[in-house]
Design a protein that fits this description.
Layout (H helix, E strand, L loop, with lengths): L2 H8 L3 E3 L5 E4 L20 E6 L12 E6 L10 E3 L19 E3 L15 E9 L4 E10 L6 E5 L3 E8 L2 E5 L2 E5 L3 E5 L5 E5 L4 E8 L23 E4 L10 E7 L2 E7 L6 E6 L4 E4 L20 E6 L6 E8 L2 E3 L11 E2 L3 E9 L13 E4 L4 E2 L3 H9 L5 E3 L2 E8 L4 E2 L1 H4 L22
Parallel strand pairs: 9-17
Antiparallel strand pairs: 1-16, 2-19, 3-4, 4-19, 5-18, 6-26, 7-8, 7-30, 8-15, 10-13, 10-15, 11-12, 11-14, 13-20, 16-20, 17-18, 21-22, 22-29, 23-28, 24-27, 25-26, 25-29
The structure holds 2-(3,6-dihydroxyphenyl)acetic acid and fe (ii) ion.
Enzyme class: oxidoreductase
EC number: 1.13.11.5
Subunit structure: Hexamer; dimer of trimers.
Length: 437
C-alpha cells in the first residue's frame, strides 16, 4: 500500500463498454494499423495473440486480444509446482456436498505480509476446472502488495468483489482500481498483480471455469435496464519495463505452478481486442422491481451471467441486491421462503440484507445449496408480516449472490472452519403455526 498507488488509482482513465473491440497504446505508434502481425511490429515490439475462445466460436462469443509487448511470453524457463496454500479447485472431492444451510463469519485476519495471492482461501465450488465447467468461490484477505510476482489463472476468469479495502490491479492490459461497491473481472489467462489501496483488503471471488460472463438478455424489459454496457470500464495500455526477476504463478488444472522470468511480463505497450479485464461500479446498477404486488425472483438483479449449453440455465449468475424501493401492495416484501434447484452463495459488502435480521455480516457468506429450504429468518418474517406497507427504501446494504446450476461442495477447510456459524438453522426456529381451519 502506498500513497503513489492511491494517486495512480485516482488518476486512472478507462475505455468504456462491455464486450467491445477496444484498442489502446501507451506509446504513440505502438499499435500496428490495418494488420495484427506485421513482419516487424512497431517499435521493436513482439506481437502475441491471447485467445479467450476457440478461434472458431461465433462472433458473438469470440474473444481474443492482440498484445504488443517488449518480450514474448514464450521466453520463460519451465514452470514447477509450488504449494497451493489454501486454494482448492474443482472437482471438489475432499468432502461431500452438504444439503444443510451453511453460514460463515468473515475470514480471520491474515498474518502480516500476506499478499492477495497468498491470501486466497477456497470456500467451495462445483464442476471440473479441466472440463471448463463450473465455478469456485474463493475469499481473499491481504495486507501486503504483490511485489515481483504476478498471477494468472488458466482455469477460468476471476470475478472479484472487494468488501474491504481497494485494489489496484496491474494487468497485462493496464491498470484497474476496484474498491468496495465495485466488481472487477480478470479474464482467463491474463496476468496481473495486486497492489493494495488501503492497509488491508478483503473480498470474494467467483472463479468461473465456464463460458465467460456476459450481460443477460433483457427480453421484455427492453433496450435498457439492469447493468448498462457503457458502465463497464476497461484499462488503457500501461506497461512495466522492469528487467528484474519476476515470479509468474499460474493456476493450471487446480494447481499452482511457478516460473521466474528475467523481466516483468506486464510489458504490453499496446493492445487491441475483446479479451479484456474490466471494472463495474455496482451502484450504477439500474434496479428493476415490482410496482404492483409480489416479490419478483432475483434474476431481475442479474449483473452478468455465464451461460451453459442449456438456454436460460446459467453455469453461474452474478446477482446484486442494491438499494431500491419496495412498494408492493398486499405483499410479503422480503425474499420469500423457497427451495431452489439452483445453488446460492451470498455475500455482503456492506450494511444488512433484507431477509436476515442478524448474523449475515459483511465479509461473511451463506450457502443455500440445491433444494435447501431457506428464506426470511424468524425475526424478519414476523416484522414483514406485520409491517405497514408504505413505500419503503431499502438503502442500508449491498449484497450479492453467485447462483449456479450445480450444487456447491464446501472444501474441508470451509466445512470445518472455526468461523462457520454452528447453529445457523436456529434462525428459522420459533416460526409458529398460525393455521386455523
Ligand atoms: O435466498 C436469498 O436470499 C436470495 C433470494 C432473494 C430473493 O429476493 C428471492 C429468492 C432468492 O433466492
Ligand atoms: Fe434463495
Amino acid at each position: 500500500m502506498s500513497e503513489q498507488a492511491r494517486k495512480t488509482a485516482e488518476a486512472l482513465e478507462y475505455l468504456t463498454g462491455f464486450g467491445n473491440e477496444h484498442s489502446s497504446e501507451a506509446v504513440p505508434g505502438a499499435l500496428p494499423i490495418g494488420r495484427n502481425s506485421p513482419q516487424r511490429a512497431p517499435l521493436g515490439l513482439y506481437a502475441e495473440q491471447l485467445s479467450g475462445s476457440a478461434f472458431t466460436e461465433p462472433r458473438t462469443h469470440n474473444r481474443r486480444s492482440w498484445l504488443y509487448r517488449i518480450r514474448p511470453s514464450a521466453a520463460h524457463p519451465p514452470f514447477t509446482r509450488i504449494d497451493n496454500g489454501a486454494l482448492r479447485s474443482a472437482p471438489f472431492t475432499e468432502s461431500v456436498a452438504d444439503p444443510n444451510r451453511l453460514r460463515w463469519n468473515p475470514l480471520p485476519d491474515p498474518a502480516p505480509g500476506t499478499d492477495f495471492l497468498a491470501g486466497l482461501w477456497t470456500l467451495g465450488g462445483n464442476g471440473d476446472a479441466a472440463q471448463r465447467a463450473g465455478m469456485a468461490i474463493h475469499l481473499y484477505a491481504a495486507n501486503a502488495d504483490m511485489t515481483d510476482r504476478v498471477f494468472s489463472d488458466s482455469d477460468g476468469e476471476l470475478l472479484i468483489v472487494p468488501e474491504r479495502g481497494g485494489l489496484l490491479l496491474h494487468t497485462e492490459l493496464g491498470l484497474l482500481a476496484a474498491r468496495p461497491g465495485d466488481m472487477a473481472l480478470i479474464p482467463r489467462g491474463v496476468r496481473f498483480r495486486v497492489e493494495l489501496l488501503d492497509a488491508d483488503a478483503r473480498g470474494y471471488i467467483c472463479e468461473n471455469y465456464g463460458q465467460p460472463f456476459e450481460l443477460p438478455n433483457l427480453g421484455p424489459i427492453g433496450a435498457n435496464g439492469l447493468a448498462a454496457a457503457r458502465d463497464f470500464q476497461a484499462p488503457v495500455a500501461a506497461y512495466e519495463d522492469i528487467e528484474r526477476p519476476t515470479e509468474v504463478i499460474n493456476k493450471f488444472c487446480g494447481n499452482l505452478w511457478s516460473a521466474t522470468y528475467d523481466h516483468s511480463p506486464l510489458d504490453v505497450v499496446a493492445w487491441h481486442g475483446s479479451h479484456v479485464p474490466y471494472v463495474y461500479d455496482m451502484r450504477r446498477f439500474n434496479v428493476l422491481g415490482s410496482i404492483s404486488y409480489d416479490h419478483p425472483d432475483p434474476s431481475i438483479f442479474t449483473v452478468l451471467t455465464s451461460p451453459s449449453d442449456t438456454p436460460g440455465l446459467a453455469g453461474v449468475d452474478f446477482v446484486v441486491f442494491a438499494p431500491r424501493w419496495l412498494v408492493g401492495e398486499d405483499t410479503f416484501r422480503p425474499p420469500y421462503f423457497h427451495r431452489n434447484v439452483m445453488s446460492e452463495y451470498m455475500g455482503l459488502i456492506e450494511g444488512a440484507y433484507d431477509a436476515k435480521a442478524e448474523g449475515f455480516v459483511p465479509g461473511g457468506g451463506s450457502l443455500h445449496n440445491m433444494m435447501s429450504a431457506h428464506g426470511p429468518d424468524h425475526e424478519t418474517f414476523e416484522r414483514a408480516s406485520a409491517a405497514e406497507l408504505k413505500p419503503q427504501k431499502i438503502d442500508d446494504g449491498l449484497a450479492f449472490m453467485f447462483e449456479t446450476r450445480w450444487p456447491i461442495t464446501a472444501t474441508a477447510q470451509a466445512a470445518g472452519a472455526d468461523h462457520l456459524q454452528r447453529g445457523y438453522d436456529d434462525v428459522w426456529q420459533g416460526l409458529q403455526r398460525h393455521f386455523r381451519a
